[in-house]
User: Fold this.
Amino acid sequence: MQTYRYEVFTSVIEHKIKNGTLLPGSRLPSIREIKKEYRLSMSSVQSGYEYLVIKGWVKNIPRSGYFVASDLKKATTAQSSPQKQQIKEETTFSKNVKLTSVRNRPNEYGSFNAATPTDLLIPQKLILKKMQEVIREKAASLLRYYPVNGSLKLRELIASRARQYGCALNSEELIITDGALQALYIALASVTRPGDTIAVESPCVFSILEVIANLQLKTIEIPIHEEIGFDTAYFRKICNENDIKALVVTPNFHNPTGILMTDEIKKELLSVALMYEIPIIENDIYGDLYFGEERPSCIRNFDESGLVMTFSSFSKTLAPGIRLGWLHPGKYYVEAEKLRFSLGRSVAPIYQELLIKLLEENSYEKHLRVFRKQLQEQATAIGEALSNYFPDGSHFYKPAGGYSIWGRLPERLDIYAFYHYCETHRILFTPGEIFGFGNQFSHYFRIIFADRINTKNVLSLQKAGEKARKLLPE
Ligand SMILES: Cc1ncc(COP(=O)(O)O)c(C=O)c1O
Assistant:
């Protein structure tokens, strides 16, 4: 079983709570004190405390610190029967999604909230030119239904592209969808019924949580941390103790943390899923946006069982208005195809033909090479601004690719005053609290770097950072 650095202090706290040395409600050492005593990094201590919160031993009171949970019965029952304690019965995701879906108004000082390529980064000229060519060449044939699972040519192109990074997709088993979220919906609906329990990463992007809520599923959140990535040991434990119907993961450049799962963890996760026969629903929407040398692998690369259902779309790499995604549903193809049909027969032919053109002529690859470089430069510039201007005790994850930086502000800071300031000064971030069903991410926020960096948006980060400093009590 994997061990984590933070266990040196979490095991001591857990032990002291169990033997009564630490009583319910008593204050626990601060992050700083633990860091000093055990010579751990801030993020290790934070991860350790998050782990104890998830297990039910510890409670986090924003702006006050960590305390032994007042209802320890819950934690102890969670040890023997976690089903009651860890499953989120709440099937309606009622967080303030309004905050995220508000369209950016012109003249925002800093729009760091929309996970989509901005107008400046969308290859507008290329897309519009190719669309015109498609209309000229395909003419009235674009007005017919295309096959339910999509154009065969497009499926072959997607499959042959995936083969280049070791991901064996069978073009006969691919289904073209209206974007990635529809692919997720189909994948989940193929293997679950309302009331079933599934596992998801925590934090998790709210759009995925919305789909889960819509399907009336219960969830168990599997923590992911900066240092360890996906907690496979915790996943194994959850699988052992619950009837999990599926796992939803974004292994490559997870939104919001930007974490890239190592191949080792991907394989470990797959072996747990195989052992318990749990379908893995793998979201690879950010896989092409890597900052390293190589395109990362998918969990699907290592699967021969058909238990892995991989999906993606071109919303993040080309433009979100091109509603074109795909799903490789493995052994659940028959259910998935039926669902695709019921959701509207076929994806708009014009988008399918557009993608065929972009893939066939290699324009997609050429665009990606430039796009990845731009994103990486923006991630570096924004990462530097954040660490320069935000107060000590803040922490920002370093993304390995994708679009987002996950930030944490000091617990003592009045987070609502911070958001109020940002809102009134039109500096837009996404509040951490909407990335989970509980309130464990109240001091986190997501910063998107999909807009071209300029003096105006760096200045807005400076203003937000200075405000955060001022909001810290002396
Ligand atoms: C992880 C993730 N999956 C899916 C989506 C939605 O993708 P699409 O627009 O292709 O439905 C998003 C972005 O909104 C996302 O961040």
Remarks:
- The longest strand covers residues 218-225.
- The radius of gyration is 23 Å.
